[in-house]
Amino acid sequence: MKLFDCQPKKFRGIFVNWRNLLMWGQNMDAELIAVGTEMLLGEIVNTNAAYLARGLSQVGVTSHYQQIVGDNPERLDAAITVAEQRSQMIILMGGLGPTKDDLTKQVLAKHLGLQLVEDAAHRQKLDDLAKQRQKVMTPNNLAQALYPEGAVTLTNHVGLAVGAIVSGEAHQYVLLPGPPREFTVMVDRELLPRLMQGEKQHLVSRTLRFFGLGESALVTAIGDIIDGQDNPTVAPYIKDYEVTLRLTASAVSEAAANTMLDQLQARILAVLAPYYYATGANVTLAQTVVQELIARKISITAAESLTAGLFQATLGSVAGVSAVFPGGFVTYAPTVKHQLVGVNAATIADYGVVSRETACAMAEGARSALGTEMAVSFTGVAGPDSLEGHPAGTVWIGLATATGVRAEEFHLGGHRNEVRIRCVKTALMMLLHELRSN
């Protein structure tokens, strides 16, 4: 049933059987158009384009151009026209919601001379939501179930606005939602698998997470793997002082794709094992360490100076940590280091606050005070000023266990809070190595 008449300015005669899209994915070039005035105003960052560009490259689709256009139908129509002159695939991101400025699908339908029709599954989702909330579904919300007539619909697994692919002889048009939570799922579960060559191809991705090695050094270390990639592919990117590698394989079955990924992962870890901590798109270093502690039933505490409780707060962000973390200490002043964890005043007088000796005394003192199996300590210079002749970024991290105590010196870059965050992550990696070595 047709629900929305776009009053097309003309019929362009490009719409063809949608099954052809299954052969479009390989060797195509795409243009990404992000729709939303808020991006032009700098209120939000267009992270969707970067995410999608990486995904497209893994299935043989290159993106030579990207545009950002505001919530204006005339300018959006003009952007589509420009894209048609230089790209085969035109991907529109955002503007599929229920508000007046969400006009992307209406503009595209009018541009192509098509009408909007209703997707029954998404309409049912809207009706079910209205019933659950005991509210009447308004016409503007119903617009989220509309898509250009004849297009292939893309299921929105976590939201309400339906996506779509309109395939023609000269161009292919894709409609994707703007909210990243909806966007990434639709890209991974709907769009990319459809762009693989052949209906029986399976696209499987895996994310490897690393800490302690910069992106440039990591890419250099596995340069031969990256240079020779074809299928599977390797896509490195950096976030939150960590580097991740997204591995993607295409095969006739999911099992075959996973076998390919297993082999590639083994090659990568043969080089990068000391920096690897987990596999998974949403796994954190803190979660990985806490899970190891819980699995081994090893308790931990901490004595923190320059990090001022950030390490303990990071542990506390992981559910279930109370099973292994009874509490800890924040010991900024030298006198407090003595009062709470028993650091001898002579140690600080002889070696200074920023020293191996003080870090070891703090860690062993904290472990002894609470009777835990392990303890971590932090002392150093977060900045911006130097301390005891040590430049900002100089830190000592101590680690005490039942078999002894040691400390390591690090020189971390960045401003004050960056040093503190990196210090905490460095300690977590030290802990992980200690746990996995026993």
TrEMBL record:
Alphabetical list of SUPFAM superfamilies matching this protein: CinA-like, Molybdenum cofactor biosynthesis proteins
Describe the location of the MoaB/Mog domain by residue ranges.
31-198
Highest taxon of the source?
A: Bacteria
- What InterPro entries does this protein's entry cite? CinA, CinA-like_C, CinA_C, CinA_KH, Competence-induced_CinA, MoaB/Mog-like_dom_sf, MoaB/Mog_dom
| Record-linked Pfam families | CinA (PF02464), CinA_KH (PF18146), MoCF_biosynth (PF00994)
Which family does the UniProt entry place this protein in? Answer: Belongs to the CinA family.
Record NCBIfam families? cinA_nterm, PncC_domain, PRK00549.1
Q: Return the protein name.
A: Putative competence-damage inducible protein
- In the UniProt record, the gene name given for this protein reads cinA
